[in-house]
Specification:
Layout: E1 5-10, H1 12-22, H2 24-42, H3 46-63, H4 65-78, H5 82-89, H6 91-102, E2 114-118, E3 129-136, E4 142-149, E5 155-160, E6 168-171, E7 175-181, H7 196-204, H8 209-217, E8 225-234, E9 237-245, E10 250-253, E11 259-262, H9 284-301, H10 308-315, E12 340-348, E13 353-358, E14 367-370
Parallel strand pairs: 1-4
Antiparallel strand pairs: 2-3, 2-11, 3-12, 4-5, 5-6, 6-7, 7-8, 8-9, 9-10, 12-13, 13-14
Helix pairs in contact: 1-4, 2-6, 3-4, 3-5, 4-5, 7-8
Length: 371
């Protein structure tokens, strides 16, 4: 299957306009999916979702004007309304805040992602590698973007059609990003802080690892999230860090024996002053973390080293299927509550190469994209 890749260049508005113009059909389908999900899963009417989006539009315009301009471009290019595109870009805050509020019932649903990284000293070619399965709504339309901005690094990333920038990817400064959704009892859209997707875009626009980390840690956040970030600019040398972020605090983790992994639960919620609730569906995060950690430790104990091919094999793992690292829809849940691996990515931060599949990696061959 040919990957949907958009090549975008120019100012934020020009990049957004071409995104909207060339992905119009996909954006329309995503709007349909999300407004239905807002209502069915999070009890948010269309009018209420747009009302909340309008408040976030003002936040973005004040704090991230270039992101706001890009959203304006997407809206005009796709012939949709700006508040609809804003709702798409802040769907994380809209949905996760509701999940937190209704989450004391067994209703929690979350981006079920498995991410890991390997330092240069434990890889076959001394390149820093990062990998992720992003598990989400099967009907969501994804895109890959090759962005050449007027200023700042070039970016190669995956995003949801209509969402500005990217959520998983790398840039020409050797910075890479993988993400995991988290939910805490303090998540609240009304805090009206810089949205998750804006932070992702700013991380991918960063020139250094420290700058990327500051995009997460500066100020408070409306909702919780996890960010796995790395950078490599010299052969054999690189850094990787995992940053768990709650609304009022963040905590960082470093690699152990050259490897680092994360799924969809806090490693240390008490340190961040939050509580998390894991219902039966979301308990898959515990299994996925244990399994990917086991696979990584087995590799290290056997004195083997990580390669892109080995990372791909790990992302295809079916232990505990359907709630496995390579995740499949659980037919015991209603249709609107089923999730699966939507995109699988392995990134080489030194070469700017990205191996990826749209859909379950067990069913497709990885294809190569280059920065």
């Amino acid at each position: 299957m040919r990957l949907p890749v958009l090549r975008l260049k120019g100012s934020p508005y020009e990049i957004g306009y071409r995104h909207g113009q060339f992905a119009r059909d996909r954006i329309e389908r995503n709007l349909e999916v999300y407004f239905r999900r807002f209502k069915n899963e999070t009890a948010l009417t269309r009018d209420e979702a747009l009302r909340r989006a309008e408040k976030y539009l003002q936040v973005i315009r004040r704090g991230s004007p270039s992101y706001a301009r890009a959203m304006e471009g997407v809206a005009l290019g796709s012939k949709t309304k700006l508040l609809e595109i804003t709702a798409l870009n802040v769907r994380y805050e809209l949905m996760y805040s509701q999940f937190a509020k209704i989450g004391l019932k067994p209703m929690l649903r979350i981006d079920g992602c498995t991410a890991f990284g390997a330092m240069p000293e434990v890889t076959v070619n001394r390149h820093l590698l990062m990998a992720q399965n992003w598990d989400w709504i099967p009907q969501v339309e994804g895109l890959f973007l090759k962005i050449r901005p007027t200023t700042g690094p070039n970016v190669l990333c995956f995003t949801e059609a209509g969402v500005v920038g990217g959520k998983i990817g790398l840039n020409s400064e050797g910075v890479g990003l993988a993400i995991n959704g988290l939910i805490s009892n303090k998540d609240d859209w009304e805090r009206l802080r810089k949205p998750f997707h804006v932070r992702c875009s700013e991380i991918l626009g960063s020139k250094t690892l420290s700058q990327a980390i500051s995009r997460i840690t500066r100020g408070e956040r409306s909702c919780s999230a996890n960010f796995l970030i790395g950078q490599q600019t010299k052969l054999g040398a690189g850094k990787i860090v995992d940053v768990e972020s709650a609304p009022e605090a963040t905590g960082a983790f470093s690699p152990q024996e050259g490897i680092l992994a994360h799924t969809n639960h806090f490693q240390n919620p008490e340190r961040l002053g939050v509580k998390q609730v894991l219902d039966e569906e979301r308990r898959s995060t515990l299994h996925r973390f244990a399994r990917i950690t086991q696979l990584l430790r087995q590799m290290r104990s056997g004195n083997r080293k990580m390669s892109m091919t080995r990372a791909e094999d790990m992302l295809r793992d079916h232990d505990g299927k359907p709630e496995s690292v390579c995740r499949h829809e659980n037919n015991s849940f209603p249709a609107d509550q089923r999730y699966r691996t939507v995109v699988s990515v392995v990134m080489d931060l030194y070469t700017g190469q990205l191996q990826t599949t749209l859909g379950s990696p067990c069913e497709r061959q990885y294809q190569t994209l280059r920065l």
